[in-house]
Amino acid sequence: MPELPEVETVRRSAERFLLGRRVESVRLRRRDIVTGSWRKSALLDGGVVVKVARHGKNLAVVAEDGRALGVHLGMTGQLLCVAKGARLARTDHVHAEWRLGDLRMLFRDPRRFGGLETFESEGAMLERSWGLLGPDAATVTGAALRDALGASKRAIKAGLLDQRAVAGIGNIYADESLFAAGIHPLAICAELSAAQWDRLAREARRVLGEAIDAGGSTLRDYRDANGGEGWFQTKHLVYGRAGEPCPRCGHRTGRTLERLTVAQRTTVSCSGLRPDAASPCAPGVCDN
DNA sequence: CTTATGACCTGATAGC
DNA sequence: TGCTATCAGGTCATAA
Fold first, then answer.
1. A217 nearest nt, CA–C1'
2. Nucleic chain C: which protein residues 66-95 of A have CB below 7 A from it?
3. Radius of gyration for the alpha carbons in chain A, expressed in angstroms and rounded
4. C8 C1' to A53 CA distance, Å
5. Nucleotide nearest to A216 (CA to C1')
6. Whole-model pTM?
7. Long-range pairs, A99-102, Cβ under 8 A, ≥24
8. Which residue is nearest to nucleotide C12 (CA to C1')?
9. Which of A11, A21, A57, A154 is labelled catalytic?
10. Positions of chain A with pLDDT under 70
11. For residue A284, what pLDDT is reported?
């Protein structure tokens, strides 16, 4: 479900609720969603929340004594913050619950591709988890992308989805960023030029930033910590639009958006784009 | 080492 | 109504 913009939206809404509050009790319904210690103390019991951080698609709730609770939403995960007596839209698949004064925080995840990870300190989290990820996609540079992927023989879309190369991009924003940069998803990383890496990084930052401003994309399950929906799905140019005219060149060329499979994920791109990086979407062919 | 592939789960939807 | 098949925003472990 959630990629960087959705996770950042959850972070912002969760932060507003949690900062300065003390965790008064913890209830863990399923141990198997936790990596690391699943003791209540490891799950922040008794701690005062001083930070809600994000890197890529990863969230962390940090207590004043340094304990950190990593939260990954997987495909269908939700981190909800609600008033104590409030009714939830759904109460099934709630795997963990925290009480902080007059509010509750819940981790809900029907498919259980997400989960929690407990760390004794932020340093431990950095070392064992976040430090293994690439730079955050919201601020990534062309040089950083090229450093991570410039020698790879994979398709560029597979590279963008690799969280060790760059953190935060998933299936939606990979397609949107590549289309915006005029690069075919099957273009080989090692064949991209410095100018293309720069353009890709710039377009990815722009698309992700605009999506954050829109509160993310709600397709099915995604909700922010208040249960609210995003509206960036209305701005998708290619994701979910296979068969429609290319929004950039379709009126002129009659070309449509084609569906293909890259890295085992449904992928959409303009049929006018070429996978060989030497002849990318050239100006006047399918370009701005 | 790098890259590709199936596996892990549940739920929504489409088609018979 | 109910059955089956397909698809879904993400990682993992394992194989090649």
1. C9
2. 72, 74-75
3. 20
4. 27
5. C9
6. 0.96
7. A99/A23, A99/A24, A99/A25, A99/A26, A100/A17, A100/A18, A100/A21, A100/A22, A100/A23, A100/A24, A100/A49, A101/A21, A101/A22, A101/A24
8. A113
9. A57
10. 1, 277-288
11. 45
Let me know if A157 is a catalytic residue: no
pLDDT of residue A277: 59
In this complex, the answer to whether residue A113 has its CB under 7 A from any atom of chain B, a nucleic strand, is: yes
A2 catalytically annotated? yes
Active-site residue, selected from the candidate residues A27, A99, A112, A265: A265
As ranges, strand C nucleotides with an atom below 7 A of a protein CB are: 7-12
Determine how many CB atoms are found less than 10 A away from the CB of residue A75.
16
Q: How many C-beta neighbours within 10 Å does residue A282 have?
A: 12
Task: Report DSSP letters for chain A, one per residue.
Answer: ---HHHHHHHHHHHHHHHTT-B--EEEES-GGGEES--STTTTTTTPBEEEEEEETTEEEEEETTS-EEEEE-TTT-EEEEEETTPPPS--TTEEEEEEETTEEEEEE-SS---EEEEESSHHHHHHHTGGGS--BGGG--HHHHHHHHTT--SBHHHHHH-TTTSBS--HHHHHHHHHHHT--TTSBGGG--HHHHHHHHHHHHHHHHHHHHTT---SSS---TTSPPP-GGGG-SSTT-TTSBPTTTHHHH--BEEEEEETTEEEEEETT--SSTTS-S-TTTS--
Considering all nucleic acid strands, name the nucleotide whose C1' atom is nearest to the C-alpha of residue A259. Answer: C7
Q: Is A245 designated active site?
A: no
Does strand B come within 7 Å of the CB of A154?
A: yes
